[in-house]
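Z., the sequence and structure:
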Amino acid sequence: MLRPDVEKYLNIILRLLIYIVIALIAFFALKFVFAYFMPFVFALILSMIIEPLVIFLQKLKLKRGISVILSILLYLGGFVAFSAFAITRIVYELIKLYNRLPKYYDVIYNFSDEVIQQATRLYLQLPQEALNIMQDVLRTVFGKVTTFLSHTTTWLIDTLTVLPSTLIFILITLIATFFITKDKALIKDFIFRQLPPTWSAKIISLKTDLFVALIGFLKAQSIILSVTFFESFIGLTIIGIDYAFILAIIIALLDILPVLGTGARSAGRR
């Protein structure tokens, strides 16, 4: 017979091992199943995004199903139109930049030649140990660049091969978005009927305190990002700056950073 204290610790260890095994099984099961549920996760997010427009259309005496279809078409049409405009504009500005590169060839060539001459003079003055270190660094950088280009090529090939599955993914997401949004009240009532009343109250409280705050934060960041982009694009276009669209994208992305963002200068003046 084991002593009571030893038996107590063995029970604790056994229970802990059982919990660890259950957690590992749940983790790998969710990891395996998550890929198949991704369209429905995106559909849930899209449903929350289009819900305000659905409610607005319902106030115009339209049925919810029709309101959902119109909302999906409006959001999808706007996304496709903006994507087409963005891609066309970026390609146009890149072609324009490529055509103008020969004009800057002399400047770039003279600058590069001066840098190479200075680097050569500095290189010849270095001791052998420093030269060996620089050669090792250059070999490492070259290997990294080669690996990066190889991975990029592989990624492009893989992207082209998954286009059919991507189209299926988008189709399933749109269909799931329609049904989740259309039957939102029925789905919510069904889920709450399966849970104890105390759980329902906790879920509602969690949604109010955490989920709404998170969605509000993401919405605010998206609005700020959009305003920064359109403001920069319109301003750069008015003053006649070349490559205004690409520069506006860069400015909007930098605006996310707290130090490099466009609001850093105005904050520094206070």
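The chain has two domains: 7-194, 195-270. The first helix runs from residue 4 to 59.

Let me know what you think.
H.
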